[in-house]
Design goal:
By secondary structure, the protein is mainly α. It has one domain (about 1-25, about 100-285). It contains 9 helices and 2 strands. It has a two-stranded antiparallel ribbon. Helix 6 (about 145-160) packs parallel to helix 9 (about 225-285). The chain is rod-shaped, with a radius of gyration of 28 Å. About 35% of the residues are buried.
């Protein structure tokens, strides 16, 4: 009967884990909103007619007006082309998910030091005081505390269980910890895929924008001659390189913060593994 109950609990844990992973509206709403906001910044802030000496008089070019003579260096990004708003949107996506991951992982880390928390639980287990150990989990308020609490509840149940062998009891504690871990891991890893993908895609998009800008520059060079051609070429190259700088800058930020978050997650996962090892070893040694 205990095996059937464990199987049902595992299935329930997996079901709940899938529900958590699926119910994540920010993962599809945020990128769309950020890309739209990137276009708004590019078109109506950088591309405002007041920022150019010779704004485009043709009102039919509402999507991409052909303004000339930017009044500042930052406004020159507008002339970098249609890839620029996408890159701005991607940078906003990085910013959005950095905030979301910072808040989520910070909450999952809980309060206080994870090693200190585990040592406190080990101390209470050594004194066979399960109630105080569970109270420590409530104080921790993080993923490690949540997993440890579920393990401790099963630990407490197994102490009074006279039907199972010690090995079966330890196995039940392990399964309880695995089920609790299955509920916590999706929350920790959620949306990190955006940062890892952007780390690669942003650079490629920047290079694409540069290539498109160079094509426009050399096309303009072929239509004119003399000093004016050289001026247009140098201006076009400068504008095209804005795409590269935006792409590389966004990629660098995404890579750095992705590594920061994965390091924090690794610390939490290590704490979860250590808590599981602590419970099983303690039970096996104290309740043979």
């Amino acid at each position: 009967m205990s095996e059937i109950k464990t199987t049902n609990a595992t299935a329930q844990a997996v079901s709940n884990s899938k529900t958590k992973r699926g119910s994540n509206p920010i993962s599809w709403i945020a990128p769309l909103v950020c890309i739209i906001l990137g276009y708004i910044i590019w078109r109506f802030v950088l591309g405002s007619a007041h920022n150019f000496a010779a704004p485009d008089p043709d009102t039919t070019h509402w999507f991409w007006p052909n303004h000339q003579g930017p009044k500042s260096s930052i406004v020159r990004m507008y002339e970098g082309g249609i890839i620029v708003p996408i890159l701005i949107g991607i940078f906003l996506i990085v910013f959005t998910f950095v905030i979301e991951r910072y808040l989520t992982i910070g909450k999952a880390a809980g309060t206080g030091s994870i090693p200190d928390f585990i040592h406190q639980v080990q101390f209470h287990l050594a004194n066979k005081d399960i109630t105080k150990a569970i109270a420590e989990c409530d104080k921790q308020k993080g993923s490690v505390g949540n997993v440890m609490r579920e393990g401790l509840k099963t630990y407490q149940e197994m102490i009074s269980n006279k039907e199972l062998t010690t090995d079966q009891k330890v196995l039940n504690i392990q399964k309880s910890i695995e089920e609790a871990t299955a509920l916590e891991m999706p929350m920790l890893e959620q949306n990190l895929v955006f940062l890892s993908t952007i780390a690669s895609v942003a650079t490629l998009l920047g290079l694409l924008g540069t290539v498109l800008g160079m094509i426009r520059s050399f096309s303009a060079l072929g239509d004119s001659g003399g000093g004016e051609a050289a001026q247009k070429l140098s201006q076009g190259i400068a504008e095209a390189l804005y795409n590269t700088s935006l792409g590389i800058g966004t990629s660098a930020v995404a890579i750095i913060l992705y590594n920061v978050f994965t390091t924090k997650i690794d610390g939490i996962v290590f704490g979860i593994d250590e808590s599981g090892f602590t419970l099983t070893q303690n039970f096996a040694s104290n309740y043979k």
